Amino acid sequence: MSLNNSEIDGGAGSPVIDQVDTPAADTVTTMARQAPVRLPETVRRYLVRGLALLAALLVWHWASSSGFNLFINFENVPGPLVVGQALAEALASADFYLHILHSLRRIAVAYVVAVVLGVGLGILMGRSRLAEDIITPYIELLRPIPAVAWIPLAILMMPSEESSIIFITFLGALFPIVINTVHGVEQTPKVLVRAARSLGASNAAILRHVVLPGALPSIVAGLAIGMGVAWFSLLAGEIISGQYGIGYFTWSAYTLIQYPQIIIGMLMIGGLGTLCTLLIKLLCRPLLRWQVEENDR
User: Fold this and answer.
1) Do 173 and 220 share a domain, yes or no?
2) How much of the chain exceeds pLDDT 70, in percent?
3) Which terminus, N or C, of the chain has the lesser number of Cβ atoms within 10 Å?
């Protein structure tokens, strides 16, 4: 059986294709017009965090305005509107900024010393069993002592109140940094150390190119934790100060029964501590760039 040309062409004078329909293109265009606009993941995450804080403010306002008293008593707790008004008045005062500057200066001095000494001791303890056996008893004995318990001894030991506050803040930041650094150094894979040594690397080269890069995630975690504990210790240390500091501002408000100022001091300590911890993470992010690249593979 054979087909002639007219049958193949669909008959004389009739084109093979009269019209080309593109339903797929129309569907894609329609879907593109109807597709919802999605926010970037980072924006969505921070939006959720902001909504969580807003929900906390609403609960706080409801509890204080209604006089909620069920195990937790909100009858004498000022609401967020009262605290916000008191905060506006505090921000208009120069003394309030002096409190902040004094606290930041104490944190900076104590934290830098804690980082230098803590990371150094942690590396030494992680690389030397003898050093670990000598230093560990002191670390484990002193680490559980709260910052408040150091106040009388700090007053006796230090030449001034300022140095006492810095010393107490330094102790708060030191121990988390030491512990996390030791953990990071000890968790370095031994096979990498043996491989580097078999290739002729010196102890200094192994420390720089193998041990420290492997321990950096744990060290950075210790730096972040140490910053938070430093602010916690600062509050205890500034109780003995008779002039300036956010901790002194909060304690003075307590003695004068100024409830809004107490909450302002607490929120300022939390906010400044959060910003300082975020700054530490941002500064350390370039050191952990290899970790991000590894996760992206």
Assistant:
1) yes
2) 84
3) N
